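=== RUN LOG ===
request id: a7f3
mode: sequence -> structure
chains: 1
length: 157
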Amino acid sequence: MLAGTRQEIELPDENVATQARDALVSLASFLQAHPTPSTHVRLVPDSSTEATHIVVPSVAFRFLLQVLHELAEGNAVTVAPIHAELTSQQAADLLNVSRPYLIKMLENKEIPYRRVGNRRRIRLSDLINYKRNSEESRRRVFRDLTRDAQDMGLGYA
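=== RESULT ===
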């Protein structure tokens, strides 16, 4: 997908999921055996012997591994630039919360947003930061609760 273009979200069929699983295993093994900043890739169409050579940065392969994993699980995948702005419904879906709950979070200034007319727009980078901070906070609370339970001899190892 090129930046700025829209694409239809398409669920992968079983054939695509199988191909993604196979590619995921092969690519993960290759990258683990050859940790380099970039890799030369040879592209050969099924019906041709002519090849195109490109250099792909390792970071792109890490994203490709994530995409292959999701496709192998039967999930649709979409790509958005970090500066993208999402609707409140898209943001709620990303956080796995209801839209009304997200609106409450926005109005409580837990996540920055801006208004465009009567619509709310939330930057993807702000959502990612919120999600990261929330996960860190949950991990901290879990560690504290575990430590307290151990101190009290409640049988948690």
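=== NOTES ===
Residues 14-44+52-72 form one domain.
Residues 1-5 have pLDDT under 50 and may be disordered.
=== END ===
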